């Protein structure tokens, strides 16, 4: 697949000149090709829901929606984003362990497909909010299964977790499907982990989730209208990792999905994908402001750092490993030196890359952190030192689109208020 990493230096130079740095660039053609390639390979009964948490920009969501992706949201703003991006209510699910009353009310007012419930206490609140509105809320149960995933960069189930309700607790229930009259149980969701790079692990997880969903629906006595098998498909970031082979995955997974679809032809099967769809498309561009040496090591001090790209510090690992980083205008030159790429923050942790092989660098060089389309600025401390959000650009079919303006000083101060220091006011 083509991607942002294959863009040429001159194009990045033009984007940096037009929009400035730091800058996130998303390759829309890469997103399109990646989605269509996966969609064409996997069983037609499996629906892909885009997890907005990976990259909640409304233009990214809108692009994926035009390609056929549905939406998985986890906040009121994500719900509004998905609707404004054109996603239909029947193609939206809402999950998260700490939903507010206002979020639940919005789900019902928008008549989304289902609320994924993560505790019995939340089920009671859903029932209360639905009764107030005179509706019956469709609800899928998120299960924390007794089994755990292997080969995941971040485990989400199989251990004591804030996510979902333990499998044993749900199977011990006797009247859950009838206890709450304003709730209609209709599905099961299990999300075991993320950054999975093994096709066999995905297949094993899916097989066990489908079996668990069938048993739970039968035990609690509700129709199995939906099974959400989670997702967690990973992308390779680091040395020694490999990307999932979509064809191999499909060859092994499709028979499992087909067997279930034949037995439950009216049940929607859902896979949640975020990182897999958008990570490869993104490049975080920074400009070198200063170069220096310290105790024998080279430092490239740049105009952006971990305030925009906290994921570069490490993803689910206690060992520091670098995202792929290149000198965008000098990719043909030999990487003869090791460079620590830092940003403008007053903390030693502000290292986007450590001992990165690069050409000899100088002030003004343009660096790109590749595979940065997921968990970028919105998963980073963008307000640290009051630098604010970077600009974001989508490049699609040869045209660049500014899809987020960078914050300026006015933006950073707009919501702050200076207290009234009236003379003699001791309150």
Summarize the structure in words:
The structure is a single chain. By secondary structure, this protein is α/β, with parallel strands linked by helices. It has two domains: 88-273, Alanine racemase (TIM Barrel), CATH 3.20.20; 280-413, Lyase, Ornithine Decarboxylase, Chain A, domain 1. The chain has helices at residues 9-19, 28-41, 58-67, 76-84, 101-110, 120-133, 167-172, 176-179, 199-220, 246-263, 275-278, 409-413, and strands spanning 23-27, 46-51, 70-73, 92-94, 114-117, 137-144, 154-155, 165-166, 183-189, 193-194, 226-231, 268-273, 282-294, 297-302, 325-327, 337-342, 351-358, 366-370, 391-396, 399-404. Strands 1, 13, 14, 15, 16, 17, 18, 19 and 20 form a nine-stranded mixed beta sheet that branches. Strands 2-3-4-5-6-9-11-12 form an eight-stranded parallel β-barrel, surrounded by five helices. A two-stranded antiparallel ribbon has the order 7-10. Helix 5 (101-110) crosses helix 6 (120-133) and helix 9 packs parallel to helix 10 (246-263). The longest helix is centred in the middle third of the chain and has 22 residues, at 199-220. The model is unreliable at 1-5 (pLDDT under 50).
């Amino acid at each position: 697949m083509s991607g942002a990493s294959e863009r040429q230096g001159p194009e990045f130079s033009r984007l940096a000149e037009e929009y400035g740095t730091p800058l996130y660039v998303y390759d829309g053609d890469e997103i399109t090709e990646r989605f269509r390639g996966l969609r064409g390979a996997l069983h037609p009964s499996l629906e892909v829901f885009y997890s907005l948490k990976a990259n909640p920009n409304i233009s990214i969501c809108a692009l994926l929606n035009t390609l056929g992706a549905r939406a998985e949201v986890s906040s009121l703003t994500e719900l509004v984003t998905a609707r404004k991006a054109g996603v239909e209510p029947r193609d939206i699910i809402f999950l998260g362990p700490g939903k507010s009353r206002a979020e639940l009310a919005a789900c019902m007012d928008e008549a989304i497909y289902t609320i994924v419930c993560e505790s019995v206490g939340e089920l009671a609140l859903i029932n209360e909010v639905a009764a107030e509105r005179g509706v019956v809320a469709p609800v899928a149960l998120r299960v924390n299964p007794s089994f755990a995933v292997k080969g995941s960069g971040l485990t989400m189930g199989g251990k004591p977790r804030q996510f979902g309700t333990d499998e044993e607790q749900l199977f011990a229930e006797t009247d859950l499907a009838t206890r709450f009259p304003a709730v209609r149980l209709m599905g099961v969701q299990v999300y075991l982990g993320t950054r999975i790079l093994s096709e066999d692990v995905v297949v094993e997880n899916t097989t066990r989730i489908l079996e668990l969903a069938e048993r739970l629906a039968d035990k609690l006595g509700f129709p199995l209208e939906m099974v959400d098998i989670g997702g967690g498909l990973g992308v390779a970031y680091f040395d020694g990792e490999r990307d999932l082979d979509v064809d191999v995955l499909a060859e092994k997974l499709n028979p499992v999905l087909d067997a279930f679809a034949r037995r439950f032809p009216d049940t929607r099967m859902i896979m949640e994908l975020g990182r897999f769809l958008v990570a490869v498309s993104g490049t975080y561009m920074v400009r070198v402001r200063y170069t220096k040496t310290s105790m024998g090591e080279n430092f490239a001090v740049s105009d952006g750092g971990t305030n925009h790209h906290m994921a570069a510090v490490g993803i689910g690992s206690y060992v520091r490993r670098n995202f792929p980083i290149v000198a965008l205008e000098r990719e043909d030159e030999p990487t003869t030196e090791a460079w620590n790429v830092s940003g403008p923050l007053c903390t030693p942790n502000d290292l986007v890359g450590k001992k990165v092989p690069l050409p000899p660098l100088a002030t003004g060089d343009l660096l790109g952190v590749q595979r940065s389309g997921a968990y970028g600025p919105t998963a980073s401390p963008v307000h640290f030192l009051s630098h604010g959000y970077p600009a974001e650009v989508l490049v699609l079919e040869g045209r660049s689109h500014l899809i987020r303006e960078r914050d300026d000083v006015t933006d950073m101060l707009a919501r702050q208020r200076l207290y009234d220091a009236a003379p003699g006011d001791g309150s």
